[in-house]
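re: ur question from the group chat, yeah i did fold both. here u go
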Amino acid sequence: MADVRALPVPDGLEGERADAALSRLFGLSRSRAAEIIAAGDVLLDGRAVAKSDRLHGGGWLEVTLPPPPSAPRPVAEPVPGMSILYEDDDVIVVNKPIGVAAHPTTGWTGPTVVGGLLGAGHTVATSGAAERQGIVHRLDANTTGAMVVAKSETAYSRLKRAFKERRVDKRYHALVQGHPDPFRGTVDAPIDRHPSGNGRFAVVAGGRPSVTHYDTLEAFRAASLLEIDLETGRTHQIRVHMSAIRHPCVGDLLYGADPTLAARLGVRRQWLHAVRLGFEHPTLGDWVEFEAPYPDDLDRALEQVAGES
C-alpha cells in the first residue's frame, strides 16, 4: 500500500533540487527519488515537479511513496569460512568472512550470517523482521570480524537496547593510506546518503550525528594501522570518516583509495576488520569480550606493507 506524505518544504531544503530534497527527506537514493518524481508522485503546491525543479520556501509538498519491496527470507545454507568464536544458549559470536552480508536485503544474492547459522544447525531468535532473525548489529558485506547474533528472545531485546544505548565496545583495525595528523584523534561529522544517490554515504550537513575515535598503532611508509572505537554506528561510518580526513582505508575504491596501492598489496576490498567486541552478557550480566583474528587477505597485505617500510 502506498504511503502519502504531505508537509511544508523544510527550511533547510529551500532552493534544493526536487530529487536531492526527496532523497534527504526520506532516505532514498537519488535515482529512486528521480523515479518517484518521474511517475508524477511528487506535487509542489498541487503541481507535479520535475527532478531538476527547485523547492521554494512556503511551498506544500505531497509525496506518494511506493510500498517498500519485501525483503527476501534467509536461505539456510552453511557459509564457508565463518567460524564460531563463542556460543551459549543466548548468544553466538562469529568471525564473519568477506563477501557475507548480515542478513538478506533486496538486491543481495550472496550468503548471509543468518542463513549460514541456520544452515549449520544453530538456532537464532525470531524477534524482529523475518529476514533479520537474531541480528542486533551489522557489518558491511566486505568488512570482516566479530559479530554477535542473538539466539534467545531475551538476548535479542537486551542486546538491541545495549547497541542503541551505546553500551557496547566495538573496536576495529583499519589500514589507512598515509599518516593521520594527529596520530590520535576524533572525527565528529554528520553522515547521510551521498547526494549522487550511487549507494555511497558522505559527510553531509544536517546528517545523522556520527563520532569516530582513532589511534595509530603503527605507521608504515605508505600506510598506518589504526585502532578505531565507534561512538555511533552509521552505515559505512569508518570508511566515510577516514575518507573525509583524506586517509581512506586501503583498498576502499568506493571512497577514494589509491587503486595502485591496493593492487600492489593484493587488497580487493577495504582493509577494515572488527577485531574486538565487548558487551554485557544479556542473561548472565558479566562483561564479555571476543577477539577475531585477521583473515588471510588482510594479514598478507599488512605483512607486505610492513616489509616495504
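okk and heres the other one u asked abt
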Amino acid sequence: MPTLSRRPLILAACAAVVAVLLAVAAFAPLPVSIVVPGPTTDVLGTDQGAPVISVTGAPVRTTSGQLRLVTISATEPNAAVHFTDVAKAWFATDQAAMPRDAVYPSGGSVKEITQVNQKQMTDSQNAATSAALNQLHLSPSKVTVKLRLADVGGPSAGLLFTLGIIDKVAGDGHGGDLTGGRTIAGTGTIDASGTVGAVGGVPLKEQAARRDGATVFLVPRDECGDAKAQLPHGLKLIAVTDLKGALSALSSLRAGRPTPSC
C-alpha cells in the first residue's frame, strides 16, 4: 500500500513545519510590555533635592510619617518582547506581562508617549490641587501649590498628591498628621470633585509600597479584586471611592477604629 509508506514522511514534514512555527513564535516580538514594581516617592518629602509639594499663600506645617505614591516600570514602548519573556513573567511574582496598548494607550513614538504621560501628570496635579483646596475651603487665587516630581508620568498619583497637600496645610485638623506617623502608600486618580478612579498595575504597586516600608495601602475600591490577589504580608488595604472617604478612613486608622477594607 503506497499510501501507508508515505505516512511517516508526511508526519515528519508536519512535525518540521510545527517546529519551525514554534521557533518563529518563540522569537517573534509580541505586542506586550513587561512591567515590574517601580520606585516610590514620599510626597511629603523631597525629590532630587526639592520639595515635592510647595505651598504659598497659606501656612505650611511640619509633618511626620510618609505618604508614598507608587509606580510601575515597564519595558520601553519600542522594546522587543518575546514569548520567552512572557513565560518568565508568567511564573514570576515580581513581573507581569500586559498588553502594550494597556501600558501605553496613547500609542505613537517614544517622544509622543512621553508627552502624553507628562500631560496626564500635569492634569492630575491640577486636579489634585483643586480637590485639596476645595476640601480646605481655600481659594486658588490666594493659595498657590506647586508639585514637583521628576521622571514620573500618568494620572495615578492624584489621590496621594491631594492627601499630601492637605497634610502639609491642615494635617488632621487637630494639630496632628493624616498619617498618624505611619508610612502610607496608595494609588488612584482624582478629579476636582474628589472622586477617586482606578489605575491598573495594583499588585506590582503593592510590592513597591511594601518594599519601601509602607504598612497601609489606599486602593480604589473598583480594584479591590486585583489588590487582594497578591497582597504582600504586612500591608493593610483601605478601599476608597472619594477624598472624603479617604480622609475618614485615615481618621479611623489613627483612632484604632475599623477602616473600609476590600
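fwiw on the second one: Residues 38-73+109-255 form a domain with the Ribosomal Protein S5; domain 2 fold (CATH 3.30.230.10). The chain is about 40% helix and 20% strand. idk if thats what u expected
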